[in-house]
Amino acid sequence: MAREILKVENITKRFGGLLALDHVSFYVNEGEILGLIGPNGAGKTTMFNVITGVYKPEEGRVYFKGRDITGMKPHSIARLGISRTHQIVKPFGDLTVLENTMIGALFGPRHDTITEDEAREIALSVLEFVGLRDKAEMPARLLNIQEKKRLELARALAQEPELLLLDEVLAGLNPSEVAKMIKLLRKVRDEKKITMIMIEHVMHAVMNLADRIVVLHFGRLIAQGTPEEVATNPEVVAAYLGDPEMALKFVKRLRR
Ligand SMILES: Nc1ncnc2c1ncn2[C@@H]1O[C@H](COP(=O)(O)OP(=O)(O)O)[C@@H](O)[C@H]1O
Ligand SMILES: [Mg+2]
């Protein structure tokens, strides 16, 4: 039977007068890939910031494996087994790819017992997994954008999370790089058995990868369901019509 790994209940987050999240509730089952979509400014990244403890919500609770983690500090939440990638990738440029990845391992659930050698071993294995093993000794600032996205994923994976939050890992990639990244994310699910929430604008990717999708619009959850249910939901289509590029992608998807 499906087991809930994460539940957010009634989350409200305000920035001054702006209601970035308005009583949002959803759940993620273990082993699932949940797509989190919505036009720019919908509150997607804010939701990740609430889940990972960067922001404290004004209302609502976040439960991870049944435990209330609302208001806990980000490093404590990371240690429980939640890691994330950032929409804007900022590796430590002067550190090597390997060192950047080791940082992930040192901040994960095993932070208190892990040795530097073990962290290096985990990092090297993760770099192999994401296809960056041959760049391990290179300063991170020399990586191109798709390599930086892979490094961001490697750092998050080195934390050995049970739940991985991906914030637009495909943004800025060309179509062939997108295809490779989708393959890699499948491998994360199938081989590492990590549950994922992916925020994504590349619609065919979410539609392909996600088991279920949650749609945010101006901070409100306007739809959730299977990719098919969501793609044909009139309120969802209408929300995207405000954003011509997204609307076009939606229409293309519907016509396929
Ligand atoms: N730290 C902040 N201070 C003030 N406003 C913010 C902050 N973070 C996000 N916002 C606002 O909250 C809304 C939701 O932003 P965000 O969660 O980044 O949207 P998305 O990731 O869906 O594009 C936007 O209007 C954004 O400008
Ligand atoms: Mg965002």
Q: Please, could you describe this protein's structure?
A:
The protein starts with a strand and ends with a helix. It has ten helices and ten strands. Helix 3 packs parallel to helix 5, helix 4 (116-130) crosses helix 5 (145-158) and helix 9 packs across helix 10. Strands 6-7-8-3-9-10 form a six-stranded mixed beta sheet, with helices on both faces. A four-stranded antiparallel beta sheet has the order 2-1-4-5, with helices on one face. Helix content is 41%, strand content 24%. With 256 residues, it is α/β, with parallel strands linked by helices. The protein binds adenosine-5'-diphosphate and magnesium ion (MG). The site of adenosine-5'-diphosphate (ADP) has 11 residues, from strand 2 and helix 1.
What's the rounded overall pLDDT mean? 92
Q: How many E strands?
A: 10
Strand order within the widest sheet? 6-7-8-3-9-10
Could you state the order of secondary-structure elements as H and E? EEEHEEHEHHHEHEHEEHHH
Q: Sheet with the most strands?
A: 6 strands, mixed
Q: Helix fraction?
A: 40-55%
CATH class of the largest domain: Alpha Beta
What would you say the CATH architecture of the largest domain is? Answer: 3-Layer(aba) Sandwich
Distinct small molecules bound, one entry per kind:
adenosine-5'-diphosphate, magnesium ion
Structural class: alpha/beta
Q: Could you please say which CATH topology of the largest domain applies here?
A: Rossmann fold
Overall tally of domains: 2
Cα shape: globular
Rounded to an integer in angstroms, the radius of gyration calculated over CA atoms is 18 Å
Number of helices: 10
Give unreliable regions as ranges.
Answer: none
Strand content: 15-25%
Under CATH, the homologous superfamily of the largest domain reads P-loop containing nucleotide triphosphate hydrolases
